[in-house]
Design a protein that fits this description.
The chain is mostly beta strands. Helix content is 14%, strand content 41%. The protein contains 2 helices and 32 strands. The chain has a 6-stranded antiparallel β-sheet, with no helix packed on it. It has a 6-stranded antiparallel β-sheet with strand order 13-12-26-25-24-14, with no helix packed on it. Strands 16, 17, 18, 19 and 20 form a 5-stranded antiparallel β-sheet that branches. The model has no long low-confidence stretch (mean pLDDT 91).
Length: 425
Protein backbone atom coordinates (compact mmCIF):
# COMPACT_ATOMS: atom_id res chain seq x y z
CA UNK A 1 0.00 0.00 0.00
CA UNK A 2 2.84 2.38 0.80
CA UNK A 3 4.26 1.71 -2.68
CA UNK A 4 1.20 3.30 -4.25
CA UNK A 5 1.72 6.46 -2.21
CA UNK A 6 5.33 6.91 -3.23
CA UNK A 7 4.63 6.01 -6.86
CA UNK A 8 1.89 8.65 -7.01
CA UNK A 9 4.11 11.22 -5.29
CA UNK A 10 6.88 10.69 -7.88
CA UNK A 11 4.27 11.12 -10.62
CA UNK A 12 3.02 14.38 -9.09
CA UNK A 13 6.52 15.86 -9.03
CA UNK A 14 7.26 14.90 -12.63
CA UNK A 15 3.89 16.03 -13.98
CA UNK A 16 4.62 19.36 -12.35
CA UNK A 17 7.88 19.42 -14.34
CA UNK A 18 5.86 18.53 -17.44
CA UNK A 19 3.61 21.52 -16.84
CA UNK A 20 6.63 23.77 -16.21
CA UNK A 21 8.04 22.88 -19.65
CA UNK A 22 4.67 23.44 -21.34
CA UNK A 23 4.34 26.82 -19.59
CA UNK A 24 7.81 27.86 -20.77
CA UNK A 25 6.94 26.90 -24.35
CA UNK A 26 3.72 28.90 -24.28
CA UNK A 27 5.49 31.89 -22.68
CA UNK A 28 7.96 31.93 -25.58
CA UNK A 29 5.41 31.50 -28.37
CA UNK A 30 6.48 34.90 -29.81
CA UNK A 31 10.17 34.73 -28.93
CA UNK A 32 12.40 35.10 -31.99
CA UNK A 33 13.85 31.75 -33.12
CA UNK A 34 12.79 30.03 -29.88
CA UNK A 35 12.98 26.24 -30.02
CA UNK A 36 10.36 24.39 -28.01
CA UNK A 37 11.13 21.67 -25.46
CA UNK A 38 9.44 18.34 -24.96
CA UNK A 39 9.42 16.04 -21.93
CA UNK A 40 9.84 12.29 -21.89
CA UNK A 41 9.31 10.08 -18.82
CA UNK A 42 10.66 6.72 -17.81
CA UNK A 43 9.70 4.18 -15.18
CA UNK A 44 11.74 3.87 -12.05
CA UNK A 45 13.03 0.59 -10.65
CA UNK A 46 10.66 -2.31 -10.08
CA UNK A 47 10.44 -4.50 -6.98
CA UNK A 48 10.67 -8.20 -7.82
CA UNK A 49 8.25 -10.29 -5.75
CA UNK A 50 8.93 -13.51 -7.59
CA UNK A 51 11.83 -14.31 -9.86
CA UNK A 52 11.43 -15.91 -13.25
CA UNK A 53 11.79 -19.70 -13.49
CA UNK A 54 12.93 -21.79 -16.45
CA UNK A 55 10.86 -24.75 -17.75
CA UNK A 56 11.69 -27.98 -15.86
CA UNK A 57 10.23 -31.39 -14.97
CA UNK A 58 7.62 -31.11 -17.70
CA UNK A 59 6.34 -27.79 -16.36
CA UNK A 60 6.37 -24.53 -18.27
CA UNK A 61 8.45 -21.66 -17.03
CA UNK A 62 7.18 -18.81 -14.88
CA UNK A 63 7.41 -15.11 -15.62
CA UNK A 64 8.79 -12.78 -12.99
CA UNK A 65 6.38 -10.92 -10.73
CA UNK A 66 7.39 -7.26 -10.43
CA UNK A 67 5.72 -4.12 -9.14
CA UNK A 68 6.81 -0.71 -10.39
CA UNK A 69 7.93 1.91 -7.92
CA UNK A 70 6.87 5.03 -9.78
CA UNK A 71 8.13 7.15 -12.66
CA UNK A 72 10.99 9.54 -13.25
CA UNK A 73 12.01 12.28 -15.64
CA UNK A 74 13.72 10.79 -18.69
CA UNK A 75 14.79 13.93 -20.58
CA UNK A 76 13.82 17.43 -21.62
CA UNK A 77 14.75 17.64 -25.30
CA UNK A 78 14.95 20.66 -27.59
CA UNK A 79 12.98 20.55 -30.81
CA UNK A 80 15.15 22.19 -33.51
CA UNK A 81 12.62 22.03 -36.34
CA UNK A 82 12.43 25.10 -38.60
CA UNK A 83 10.27 28.01 -37.46
CA UNK A 84 8.24 30.09 -39.89
CA UNK A 85 9.84 33.22 -41.37
CA UNK A 86 8.32 36.61 -40.66
CA UNK A 87 9.03 39.52 -43.00
CA UNK A 88 10.30 42.63 -41.23
CA UNK A 89 11.60 44.74 -44.12
CA UNK A 90 14.77 45.49 -42.16
CA UNK A 91 17.83 44.38 -44.11
CA UNK A 92 19.86 43.64 -40.99
CA UNK A 93 17.27 41.10 -39.84
CA UNK A 94 18.49 37.67 -40.91
CA UNK A 95 16.87 34.26 -40.74
CA UNK A 96 18.44 30.85 -41.32
CA UNK A 97 16.50 28.52 -43.60
CA UNK A 98 17.86 25.12 -42.67
CA UNK A 99 20.49 23.91 -40.22
CA UNK A 100 23.09 26.05 -38.52
CA UNK A 101 23.64 28.73 -35.89
CA UNK A 102 24.97 32.27 -36.01
CA UNK A 103 28.22 32.63 -34.06
CA UNK A 104 28.48 35.50 -31.58
CA UNK A 105 31.34 36.48 -29.31
CA UNK A 106 30.37 36.23 -25.66
CA UNK A 107 32.36 37.44 -22.64
CA UNK A 108 33.81 33.95 -22.06
CA UNK A 109 34.01 32.60 -25.61
CA UNK A 110 31.81 31.93 -28.60
CA UNK A 111 28.07 31.39 -28.19
CA UNK A 112 25.51 30.31 -30.76
CA UNK A 113 22.04 31.50 -31.71
CA UNK A 114 19.33 31.28 -34.34
CA UNK A 115 18.22 34.83 -33.51
CA UNK A 116 19.12 37.03 -36.47
CA UNK A 117 17.84 40.31 -35.02
CA UNK A 118 20.96 42.31 -35.92
CA UNK A 119 21.97 45.94 -36.22
CA UNK A 120 25.03 48.13 -36.84
CA UNK A 121 27.06 49.01 -33.74
CA UNK A 122 28.87 52.28 -33.08
CA UNK A 123 32.06 50.74 -34.43
CA UNK A 124 30.33 49.80 -37.69
CA UNK A 125 30.17 46.08 -36.89
CA UNK A 126 27.23 43.69 -37.09
CA UNK A 127 25.89 43.12 -33.57
CA UNK A 128 22.88 41.73 -31.78
CA UNK A 129 21.42 44.90 -30.19
CA UNK A 130 19.76 43.03 -27.30
CA UNK A 131 23.00 41.42 -26.11
CA UNK A 132 25.64 43.70 -27.65
CA UNK A 133 27.51 40.65 -28.95
CA UNK A 134 29.30 40.79 -32.30
CA UNK A 135 28.24 38.41 -35.06
CA UNK A 136 31.29 36.57 -36.35
CA UNK A 137 32.43 35.63 -39.84
CA UNK A 138 35.27 36.41 -42.22
CA UNK A 139 36.28 39.90 -43.37
CA UNK A 140 37.06 40.41 -47.06
CA UNK A 141 40.45 41.61 -48.26
CA UNK A 142 41.05 44.77 -50.30
CA UNK A 143 39.90 42.93 -53.46
CA UNK A 144 36.67 41.68 -51.86
CA UNK A 145 37.88 38.08 -51.55
CA UNK A 146 36.94 35.83 -48.62
CA UNK A 147 39.34 33.36 -47.00
CA UNK A 148 37.22 31.03 -44.85
CA UNK A 149 40.33 29.24 -43.56
CA UNK A 150 41.15 32.26 -41.39
CA UNK A 151 39.99 32.66 -37.79
CA UNK A 152 36.52 34.08 -37.22
CA UNK A 153 36.25 37.78 -36.51
CA UNK A 154 33.71 40.58 -36.47
CA UNK A 155 32.30 41.97 -39.72
CA UNK A 156 32.54 45.73 -40.19
CA UNK A 157 30.33 47.91 -42.39
CA UNK A 158 32.48 51.05 -42.94
CA UNK A 159 29.81 53.60 -43.89
CA UNK A 160 31.32 56.67 -45.52
CA UNK A 161 34.40 54.81 -46.72
CA UNK A 162 35.44 55.88 -50.23
CA UNK A 163 36.43 53.48 -52.96
CA UNK A 164 37.28 53.71 -56.65
CA UNK A 165 37.97 51.13 -59.34
CA UNK A 166 40.60 51.50 -62.02
CA UNK A 167 39.57 50.82 -65.59
CA UNK A 168 40.83 47.46 -66.76
CA UNK A 169 38.67 46.88 -69.84
CA UNK A 170 36.99 49.00 -72.49
CA UNK A 171 34.53 47.49 -75.01
CA UNK A 172 34.25 49.06 -78.47
CA UNK A 173 31.81 48.74 -81.32
CA UNK A 174 31.57 50.33 -84.75
CA UNK A 175 33.12 49.99 -88.17
CA UNK A 176 36.49 50.67 -89.83
CA UNK A 177 35.71 51.36 -93.47
CA UNK A 178 37.04 48.78 -95.89
CA UNK A 179 37.25 51.45 -98.61
CA UNK A 180 39.32 53.95 -96.60
CA UNK A 181 42.57 54.88 -98.33
CA UNK A 182 45.95 53.74 -97.05
CA UNK A 183 47.24 56.17 -94.44
CA UNK A 184 43.74 57.17 -93.33
CA UNK A 185 43.51 57.80 -89.58
CA UNK A 186 40.39 57.30 -87.45
CA UNK A 187 40.42 58.46 -83.82
CA UNK A 188 38.38 57.64 -80.73
CA UNK A 189 38.50 59.59 -77.45
CA UNK A 190 37.22 58.20 -74.15
CA UNK A 191 37.76 58.52 -70.41
CA UNK A 192 39.32 55.91 -68.12
CA UNK A 193 39.78 55.88 -64.34
CA UNK A 194 43.00 55.24 -62.45
CA UNK A 195 43.22 53.50 -59.06
CA UNK A 196 42.51 56.83 -57.30
CA UNK A 197 39.29 57.36 -59.25
CA UNK A 198 40.76 60.19 -61.35
CA UNK A 199 39.55 60.28 -64.96
CA UNK A 200 42.08 60.42 -67.82
CA UNK A 201 41.29 61.09 -71.47
CA UNK A 202 42.73 58.53 -73.87
CA UNK A 203 42.78 58.83 -77.66
CA UNK A 204 43.16 55.71 -79.77
CA UNK A 205 44.23 56.16 -83.41
CA UNK A 206 43.54 53.56 -86.10
CA UNK A 207 45.81 53.94 -89.15
CA UNK A 208 44.92 52.10 -92.38
CA UNK A 209 47.94 50.24 -93.78
CA UNK A 210 48.70 49.73 -97.46
CA UNK A 211 47.70 46.06 -97.31
CA UNK A 212 44.38 45.32 -98.98
CA UNK A 213 44.25 41.61 -98.26
CA UNK A 214 43.74 41.29 -95.43
CA UNK A 215 42.64 44.80 -94.52
CA UNK A 216 44.92 45.94 -91.68
CA UNK A 217 44.64 48.79 -89.18
CA UNK A 218 47.54 49.73 -86.87
CA UNK A 219 46.64 50.81 -83.34
CA UNK A 220 48.33 53.56 -81.30
CA UNK A 221 47.25 55.47 -78.19
CA UNK A 222 48.01 58.69 -76.33
CA UNK A 223 46.79 60.49 -73.23
CA UNK A 224 45.36 63.97 -73.69
CA UNK A 225 45.74 66.63 -71.01
CA UNK A 226 46.54 70.32 -70.55
CA UNK A 227 49.60 72.00 -69.09
CA UNK A 228 49.75 74.68 -66.40
CA UNK A 229 48.87 77.32 -68.98
CA UNK A 230 45.84 75.44 -70.26
CA UNK A 231 47.52 74.35 -73.48
CA UNK A 232 46.65 70.87 -74.78
CA UNK A 233 49.33 68.20 -74.28
CA UNK A 234 49.42 64.65 -75.60
CA UNK A 235 51.59 61.85 -74.22
CA UNK A 236 52.14 58.61 -76.08
CA UNK A 237 50.74 55.57 -74.26
CA UNK A 238 52.74 52.39 -74.91
CA UNK A 239 51.18 49.07 -75.80
CA UNK A 240 51.99 46.07 -73.61
CA UNK A 241 55.06 44.15 -74.76
CA UNK A 242 53.00 41.03 -75.50
CA UNK A 243 50.08 42.87 -77.10
CA UNK A 244 49.40 42.85 -80.86
CA UNK A 245 49.80 46.24 -82.52
CA UNK A 246 47.22 45.88 -85.27
CA UNK A 247 43.88 44.33 -86.12
CA UNK A 248 42.92 42.69 -89.40
CA UNK A 249 39.64 41.93 -91.17
CA UNK A 250 38.83 39.03 -93.48
CA UNK A 251 36.98 39.18 -96.79
CA UNK A 252 33.63 39.28 -94.93
CA UNK A 253 34.64 42.25 -92.81
CA UNK A 254 35.02 40.17 -89.64
CA UNK A 255 38.00 40.61 -87.35
CA UNK A 256 40.70 37.95 -87.69
CA UNK A 257 41.81 35.99 -84.63
CA UNK A 258 44.98 33.93 -84.96
CA UNK A 259 48.29 33.43 -83.18
CA UNK A 260 49.49 36.92 -84.18
CA UNK A 261 46.33 39.00 -84.38
CA UNK A 262 43.80 39.23 -81.55
CA UNK A 263 40.67 41.36 -81.05
CA UNK A 264 42.09 42.69 -77.76
CA UNK A 265 44.95 45.18 -77.53
CA UNK A 266 46.44 46.20 -74.18
CA UNK A 267 47.66 49.72 -73.45
CA UNK A 268 49.65 50.76 -70.35
CA UNK A 269 49.12 54.42 -69.37
CA UNK A 270 51.80 55.84 -67.04
CA UNK A 271 49.90 57.98 -64.51
CA UNK A 272 51.85 60.72 -62.71
CA UNK A 273 49.43 61.48 -59.88
CA UNK A 274 50.40 58.67 -57.50
CA UNK A 275 47.96 56.09 -58.88
CA UNK A 276 49.02 52.54 -59.66
CA UNK A 277 51.15 52.66 -62.79
CA UNK A 278 51.28 51.41 -65.41
CA UNK A 279 47.51 51.04 -65.60
CA UNK A 280 46.94 48.01 -67.79
CA UNK A 281 43.77 48.46 -69.88
CA UNK A 282 42.44 45.93 -72.41
CA UNK A 283 40.76 47.43 -75.48
CA UNK A 284 38.25 44.91 -76.82
CA UNK A 285 37.50 45.34 -80.55
CA UNK A 286 35.83 41.93 -81.01
CA UNK A 287 32.53 43.45 -82.21
CA UNK A 288 34.12 46.03 -84.56
CA UNK A 289 33.60 45.28 -88.26
CA UNK A 290 35.61 46.08 -91.38
CA UNK A 291 32.78 46.61 -93.88
CA UNK A 292 32.27 49.27 -96.52
CA UNK A 293 30.92 52.56 -95.24
CA UNK A 294 31.85 55.29 -92.85
CA UNK A 295 34.54 54.65 -90.24
CA UNK A 296 33.28 55.27 -86.73
CA UNK A 297 34.46 53.38 -83.62
CA UNK A 298 33.16 54.27 -80.15
CA UNK A 299 33.47 52.81 -76.64
CA UNK A 300 30.24 51.26 -75.32
CA UNK A 301 31.35 50.23 -71.84
CA UNK A 302 34.26 50.37 -69.43
CA UNK A 303 34.58 48.89 -65.95
CA UNK A 304 36.27 51.79 -64.12
CA UNK A 305 34.50 53.92 -61.51
CA UNK A 306 35.19 57.26 -59.92
CA UNK A 307 35.58 57.57 -56.16
CA UNK A 308 32.36 56.87 -54.25
CA UNK A 309 31.36 56.31 -50.61
CA UNK A 310 29.64 53.33 -49.00
CA UNK A 311 25.96 54.19 -48.66
CA UNK A 312 24.25 50.84 -48.16
CA UNK A 313 24.76 47.10 -48.00
CA UNK A 314 22.86 43.84 -48.35
CA UNK A 315 23.31 40.25 -47.26
CA UNK A 316 22.78 37.54 -49.86
CA UNK A 317 21.66 33.93 -49.40
CA UNK A 318 25.22 32.76 -48.82
CA UNK A 319 25.87 35.21 -46.02
CA UNK A 320 28.02 37.56 -48.08
CA UNK A 321 27.79 41.17 -46.89
CA UNK A 322 27.96 43.27 -50.07
CA UNK A 323 28.61 47.01 -49.79
CA UNK A 324 26.89 49.38 -52.22
CA UNK A 325 28.85 52.55 -53.06
CA UNK A 326 27.52 55.83 -54.41
CA UNK A 327 29.45 55.35 -57.66
CA UNK A 328 27.61 52.10 -58.39
CA UNK A 329 30.41 49.84 -57.18
CA UNK A 330 29.39 46.68 -55.30
CA UNK A 331 32.10 45.01 -53.22
CA UNK A 332 32.04 42.12 -50.78
CA UNK A 333 32.85 43.32 -47.25
CA UNK A 334 32.66 40.01 -45.43
CA UNK A 335 30.77 36.76 -45.01
CA UNK A 336 28.73 35.55 -42.05
CA UNK A 337 29.72 32.14 -40.67
CA UNK A 338 27.32 29.40 -39.58
CA UNK A 339 28.16 26.72 -37.02
CA UNK A 340 26.93 23.16 -37.17
CA UNK A 341 26.96 20.49 -34.45
CA UNK A 342 26.87 16.71 -34.57
CA UNK A 343 24.31 16.75 -31.73
CA UNK A 344 22.65 20.18 -31.43
CA UNK A 345 20.26 18.73 -28.86
CA UNK A 346 23.22 18.45 -26.48
CA UNK A 347 23.78 22.21 -26.40
CA UNK A 348 23.18 24.22 -23.23
CA UNK A 349 20.59 26.98 -23.18
CA UNK A 350 22.18 30.18 -21.84
CA UNK A 351 19.16 32.50 -21.99
CA UNK A 352 18.74 35.46 -24.39
CA UNK A 353 18.24 32.97 -27.26
CA UNK A 354 21.83 31.77 -26.83
CA UNK A 355 23.31 28.29 -26.72
CA UNK A 356 26.68 27.08 -25.49
CA UNK A 357 28.77 24.03 -26.29
CA UNK A 358 28.46 21.07 -23.93
CA UNK A 359 30.35 17.80 -23.61
CA UNK A 360 27.60 16.04 -25.57
CA UNK A 361 27.01 18.56 -28.37
CA UNK A 362 30.28 18.03 -30.19
CA UNK A 363 32.60 20.81 -31.29
CA UNK A 364 31.26 23.53 -33.61
CA UNK A 365 32.13 23.22 -37.29
CA UNK A 366 32.28 26.58 -39.07
CA UNK A 367 31.55 27.18 -42.75
CA UNK A 368 29.67 29.56 -45.03
CA UNK A 369 25.87 29.33 -45.40
CA UNK A 370 24.87 26.75 -48.00
CA UNK A 371 27.98 24.60 -47.47
CA UNK A 372 27.94 21.03 -46.16
CA UNK A 373 24.25 20.97 -45.33
CA UNK A 374 24.04 24.39 -43.70
CA UNK A 375 21.01 26.54 -44.36
CA UNK A 376 20.76 29.70 -46.44
CA UNK A 377 20.28 33.26 -45.19
CA UNK A 378 17.08 35.24 -45.80
CA UNK A 379 17.64 38.97 -45.39
CA UNK A 380 14.71 41.07 -44.16
CA UNK A 381 13.18 38.16 -42.23
CA UNK A 382 13.26 36.76 -38.70
CA UNK A 383 12.64 33.15 -37.72
CA UNK A 384 9.59 32.77 -35.50
CA UNK A 385 9.19 30.37 -32.59
CA UNK A 386 8.43 26.79 -33.56
CA UNK A 387 5.97 26.39 -30.65
CA UNK A 388 2.73 24.67 -31.76
CA UNK A 389 0.07 26.20 -29.51
CA UNK A 390 -2.49 23.50 -30.23
CA UNK A 391 0.01 20.81 -29.21
CA UNK A 392 1.06 22.74 -26.10
CA UNK A 393 -2.52 23.19 -24.88
CA UNK A 394 -3.11 19.49 -25.46
CA UNK A 395 0.03 18.73 -23.44
CA UNK A 396 -1.27 21.02 -20.71
CA UNK A 397 -4.46 19.01 -20.49
CA UNK A 398 -2.47 15.75 -20.42
CA UNK A 399 -0.24 17.09 -17.63
CA UNK A 400 -3.25 18.33 -15.66
CA UNK A 401 -5.12 15.04 -15.95
CA UNK A 402 -2.02 13.06 -15.06
CA UNK A 403 -1.55 15.21 -11.98
CA UNK A 404 -5.22 14.83 -11.01
CA UNK A 405 -5.20 11.06 -11.50
CA UNK A 406 -2.14 10.62 -9.29
CA UNK A 407 -3.70 12.89 -6.68
CA UNK A 408 -6.63 10.48 -6.63
CA UNK A 409 -4.22 7.59 -6.06
CA UNK A 410 -2.82 9.38 -3.00
CA UNK A 411 -6.34 10.08 -1.72
CA UNK A 412 -7.40 6.45 -2.22
CA UNK A 413 -4.23 5.12 -0.56
CA UNK A 414 -4.87 7.43 2.38
CA UNK A 415 -8.45 6.12 2.70
CA UNK A 416 -7.21 2.53 2.70
CA UNK A 417 -4.63 3.34 5.36
CA UNK A 418 -7.36 5.01 7.40
CA UNK A 419 -9.50 1.87 7.17
CA UNK A 420 -6.50 -0.18 8.26
CA UNK A 421 -5.93 2.04 11.27
CA UNK A 422 -9.62 1.81 12.18
CA UNK A 423 -9.62 -1.99 12.33
CA UNK A 424 -8.86 -1.62 16.02
CA UNK A 425 -11.46 0.58 17.60
Amino acid sequence: MMRSLFSAISALKNHQTYLDVVASNIANVNTTAYKSSKVSFQELMSQTLQAAAAPQNGLAGRNPVQIGLGMGLGSVDTNFTQGSLQATGKMTDLAIQGDGFFVVRGPNGNLFTRDGNLDIGLDGSLVNPSTGMHVLGWAADADGKIDSTQALGQINIPFGQNMARATSKVQFQGNLGAEDAAGSVVSTQFGVYDSLGVVHTIQVDYTRSASSSPVTWTISAKELSVDANGNPVSTNVPLAATSPTEIQFDSKGQIITDATHQPTITIEPAYSNGAVTPGSISLDFSTVTGLAGRSNVNPVSQDGLESGSLVSFNVNSYGQVVGVFSNGLNRTLGQIALAKFVNPGGMLREGENLYAVSTNSGTPQFAAPGQDGRGLISSGYLEMSNVDLAQQFTNMIVAQRGFQANSRVITTSDELLNELVNLKR
